Structures are given as structure tokens and as C-alpha cells.
């Protein structure tokens, strides 16, 4: 069955598979350690500006995920529980019910299958920005990073539209989220020692200007 997103104005519309509404991105739960705008600005200034390299050698399997975090719960399931509300899981840690608001587009979902876990800095982007030189162990840590604001529960097709794009070529449709997006994106690149392209840095600076 094909999902149809509805921009709700008065009442939520119930579907047999999922419920879709829109709500402000501010209602979404967020990952930890998102820096202030001033800190992010300092971090952006400290990033090395360089061209991307080794795009043709990228392979998603070089970033092992999702890994077990605790008990039966892997990284995806951990983020779904962290960023959702009233999340119920079964004995395998799979979410059987809950509510997730995607900060990228403001849509709210009640089926975990409609939610992707997005890497704020895409894996392919990280590869081109320096991760090609990392060990597989370090790339695994990056792909499952729960310490920084790298993993976000978002609408699945929005995540797919982002793909491996950096902010020079893709930004969330909700301009009200640009400030948070830039702060998180910059911090991940800073914490992991990744480079930025000139156009990417300019786009991030513009997004910080909305803070």
C-alpha cells in the first residue's frame, strides 16, 4: 500500500497502516550534545576546507551497522526508543507502537516502518571527507554514534531524498530547523575530524545565520 502524507489542519486522519500529521519540528525529540550556535560557528571556522576524495571507492559495508547496543536492541531500535514517545517494544526490541515526529519535515508517524534513522553526516559524505583513511572499527563507531548528534529519526522518504548530500545540495524542507541542522552537522564533522568543501561551508554558514 502506498503511503500518502496529509498536511493536517484540524483533525488527524487515520489510515489502516499509519497516521500522518504535521507538527512543528520543535516537538521532535533530538539527539544529545547539539552545540550552541556560537560554538558551532567556532567549530565551522576550525574545519579544514578541502576537496572530497575517493568517492568511487565508497561501499556502505565499510561502515558496519546496525550493531547491538544493549540486550536485544541495536542502534536503530535504540534511536527509535530515544526519539519517540510512548514507544512500546517486543521481546526482540522491535518497536510495535509509538509516535515519531520527523524534525526535517514536521511529519508525525505512528508506525516504525515509516521512520528511517538518518546519519546527519551521510556515510558516503564522511568517506569522501576523510573516513576513507579510517579503520573499519572507527567507521563502525561513526555509523553507530549515539554520543554526538549524528543519528536522527526522520521520515523515510525524506531520508532517501537526502541520500549522501551535504548541505550545499540538500537542506530540510523546514527552514525553522536549519539552525539545529547546521549546528548538529558541523559538530559531527568537527568531533570526527572530517573536512568540508567550500560550498558546503558556505551553506552551513548561511544556515547558522537563521539561528
From TrEMBL:
Q: Report a single Gene Ontology molecular function.
A: endonuclease activity
Q: Which InterPro entries match?
A: GmrSD_C (IPR011089)
Q: Keywords in UniProt for this one?
A: Endonuclease, Hydrolase, Nuclease, Signal
Domain GmrSD restriction endonucleases C-terminal spans what residues? Answer: 110-205
Q: Does the keyword Membrane apply?
A: no
Q: Where is the signal peptide?
A: 1-28
Which Pfam families does the UniProt entry name for this protein?
A: GmrSD_C (PF07510)
Q: Can you tell which superkingdom this protein's organism belongs to?
A: Bacteria
Return the protein name.
HNH endonuclease family protein
Q: Which organism is it from?
A: Sphaerisporangium corydalis
